[in-house]
Design goal:
The chain contains 4 helices and no strands. With about 110 residues, it is mainly α. The protein folds into 2 domains: about 15-45; about 55-110. Helix 3 (about 55-80) packs antiparallel against helix 4. The two termini are about 25 Å apart. The relative contact order is 0.09.
């Protein structure tokens, strides 16, 4: 399409860092015109936004497991004893985290780029 048909103009500001990143990516793409480069990115590029609520829950579970294991370790080091029930909650939380990770991998594998 020639520029005579392009009647709309878009202006936007960027930071120095953003400008340098645009220039670098433009150079890597071997496109001389910045307008052509930005048009190509917008028209053909993809924006992938992942919203995976399970990641937050996994983070919480792993934090709990870490805290539980630290408490168990301190108790074992001070008393020399380990009770079977102390590990059960941690094992359950790790199993939940593992199941969530499996679900996340399944969801990610469905993404077509």
């Amino acid at each position: 399409m020639d520029d005579a048909k392009r009647t709309k103009r878009i202006w936007f500001r960027v930071t120095t860092e953003e400008y340098a990143a645009i220039q670098q990516k433009q150079k890597e793409a071997n496109i001389i015109s910045r307008e052509s480069f930005l048009r190509k990115i917008v028209m053909e590029g993809r924006i992938l936004r992942l919203e995976i609520p399970e990641l937050r829950e996994i983070s919480v579970l792993l934090s709990r497991c870490s805290t539980n294991l630290n408490q168990i370790t301190r108790r074992v080091n001070s008393t020399g004893r380990l009770y079977a029930g102390e590990l059960s909650e941690t094992k359950q939380e790790l199993a939940r985290a593992e199941n969530m990770m499996r679900k996340i991998y399944e969801r990610l594998s469905e993404i077509n780029i």
